[in-house]
Amino acid sequence: MSFFHSSDSLAFNLNLHSPFDFICLKCCSCCYQRHIELNELEIARLSQFLEIPESELIKKFLIPGQKPSLRTKEDGSCIFLNQAGCQIHPARPLVCRLYPLGLLFGQDGEEKWGLMPTHPDCLGIFVQEKTLEEYLLSQGAIPYLQFERQLRNKGK
Ligand code: SF4
Ligand code: SF4
C-alpha cells in the first residue's frame, strides 16, 4: 500500500483540526498485502531500533530500489509481523502510524487528509475525542510527517 493514494475513490475532506481518533485493537489484519515504501528517515530509525547497519537492514528486510519497501512473507504478511504483533512498533513507518488515514500533497504543498477504507476484518474503533493533529501526535507521527514535508519541498 502506498502512502499517497488516488483521490478518485476517497474524500479528502479532513484537516488537522477535524475531530478524529481511532483505537486500534491490534488484530494485525492490515499488516497483509501492503506495499510500504521507506524514506531515509524511516530507514535510519529502523536501523537504529534494530541495532543493525542500514546495509544489513536493506539486505535482510527491504526490497532494494530507488524507494526501498518492506519485504513480505509468503503469506503476504509484513516481514516484521509475527504472532506477537508488529516487531518494530516503536520504529514503524509513517504509513503504519497513519492507518487508516490517507494523505495527499497538492501541487502547492497543501495537505489533504482523508479516511481510507479499513480492512474488512479491522477491529478498530472510530471515535471523535481528539483532533486529527492530536491523533498524529499520539502516534508519534509528527517527526515523520515533517520529514515528508521536507521531501515534498525538495520535490522528491
Ligand atoms: S511495520 Fe508493523 S505495523 Fe507496519 S505493516 Fe509491518 S507489522 Fe504491520
Ligand atoms: S486492522 Fe484495524 S484493528 Fe487491526 S491492527 Fe490494523 S488498524 Fe488495528
Question: Keywords, please?
Answer:
156 residues; alpha+beta; two-stranded antiparallel ribbon; 5 helices; 19% strand; globular; disordered N terminus; binds iron/sulfur cluster
Question: What is this structure's SSE topology?
Answer:
Blueprint: E1 19-23, H1 40-50, H2 54-61, E2 62-63, E3 69-70, E4 81-82, E5 85-86, H3 94-98, E6 101-105, E7 111-115, E8 125-131, H4 132-138, H5 142-153
Antiparallel strand pairs: 1-8, 2-3, 4-5, 6-7
Short note summarizing the structure:
With 156 residues, the chain is an alpha+beta fold. 28% of the residues lie in helices and 19% in strands. It has helices at 40-50, 54-61, 94-98, 132-138, 142-153; strands at residues 19-23, 62-63, 69-70, 81-82, 85-86, 101-105, 111-115, 125-131.
Quote the average pLDDT.
91
Helix content: 25-40%
How far from one another are the termini?
Answer: 19 Å
Order of helices and strands: EHHEEEEHEEEHH
Please give the number of β-strands.
Answer: 8
- Give the helix tally: 5
Please state the CA-atom Rg, rounded to the nearest Å: 15 Å
Low-confidence stretches: 1-8
Given the C-alpha coordinates, what overall shape results?
globular
Judged by helices, strands and strand pairing, the structural class is alpha+beta
Strand order in the largest sheet: 1-8
Strand content: 15-25%
Task: Provide the number of structural domains.
Answer: 1
Q: Main β-sheet: number of strands, strand sense, barrel status?
A: 2 strands, antiparallel
Listed once per kind, the bound small molecules are:
iron/sulfur cluster
